[in-house]
Each structure stands twice: as C-alpha cells, then as structure tokens.
Amino acid sequence: MLQTRVIPCLQLRGESLVKTIQFNKFGYIGDPINTVKIFNDLYVDELAFMDITATVEKREPNYKILSEIADECFMPLSYGGGIDSLQKAENVFKIGFEKMILNSAPFYNLSVITDIAKIYGSQAVAVAVDVKKNFWGKYEVYSNSGKVNQKRDPKDWVKMVEDAGAGEILLTSIDREGTWKGFDNVLIKQVAEATQLPVIANGGANSIENISSAVKDAGASAVALGSLVLYQGKDLGVLVNFPDREKLEKSI
Q1: Could you tell me the CATH number of the domain that includes residue 93?
Q2: Confidence at 38, pLDDT banded by 50, 70, 90
Q3: Catalytic positions
C-alpha cells in the first residue's frame, strides 16, 4: 500500500463511466464493472465513484449499479452524488461503500454532515469542494456539478464543513479538471493551510512528478486521478491503468 493515497476518481453518468473536461464536455470510458475488475488486478488501494448527474436530475443514487460495483470491488469505496440525507447515505453504506462524498447538500443543510458523522464517524464523510476562478482570478466554490456558484471562499467553506464533522476534503479545480494541465498548487496550498483535515487534490494531474509536487510542495494529503488512469495519454484512447508504484513510492 502506498504511503500517500492515490485514488482513481471515476465519474458515473447513468450506468456508464465517463470523463468530463472542466465539468462540462465528457467522453465515454466504458462499463464501470469491467473498469473495477481492471483496478482490482492493478491492486489499487481505494476507488471513488461520483454520479455526476444525480443531484442535477434531483434523483437518488443508482443503488443497482452501486451494488454491482461493491460486489465486484476488492478495495475500499467512496461514493458521491445525490446524497442529501442520512437515509440515502445509509442505503449506500449498506451496499458496501465505506465513505460518502457530499458536495451540494451541505450548502442547504449543513447538518447532513453532522448526522452522518455521528453514526458512521467523521472518517466516513468527505466533502467535495469544487472550485473555479472568477473573472478577477478569485477562487469561488461551486455546487450541483459545477453549475451553481455558491460565491464562497474555499478557505472559509472548508472551515465550516470541518466544524460540522467532515473527515476530509476532496478539492477539485474545475478549471484544471480533465485538462492535463497539472494540479492547481496555489489552490491546494491555500486550502490545506486553512484546515486540519486531509486534503485530496483533484483536477489536472498529468504525471508522477505533478502528483509529487501536489503533495510535497502544496501540502495535499492524497491525490485523486481521472484522465491519468483512464487514457493512454492526452488526446489518446481509453486505457485503464495506474502509475508505476515503484516510481510513486520514490516520488511521494
């Protein structure tokens, strides 16, 4: 197991895996079950699944596909998408997922974090903080799959969710997501310094060196990968893979 967590972060749209670019344009990746089987064979330590349309469509998680994923997966699983109550979280926990990732719901009901953490522990609650720069270069937090600008400073928001009982932050740069332009280390550093919670850097990873920089230079506690583990390279075809473990160990 790697000392620093390197987590494939996979996007569900319906019952298919996709990969977005800046939370917008998306490409088809394939069947999530087949992808899980490949990650099993690659001995990945942890997987995160995000249903990118559940909240926008105002529907519950797709429990059927989540059950199929949990039945096939050998490693710990996290899930985000459409979780806005303790009951819905419990439904997904019962399927076999170990952690809920909340994004939109806490803006309208901050206590949902506390409700879940009281029963399952803070380690079972992550908050996805999706951030985009405005016209003047200021970071602002978005919800609803990047469609609603909450007009909050990410540093202030992570303090609020930490106080509410969250156990970690999944920090995504919307501007970098799916672009292969590298992590936004300035954003990562600002957020990491604003909270005591572990910060998982997400959005833009393009190399092992880039992963190392996010951890060593910016202060990320872990990294989440999308395009880097789903494609052969930038503008190349789909190839489910994982960075060389020996090189990762040496770099992070």
Answers
A1: 3.20.20.70
A2: very high
A3: 130
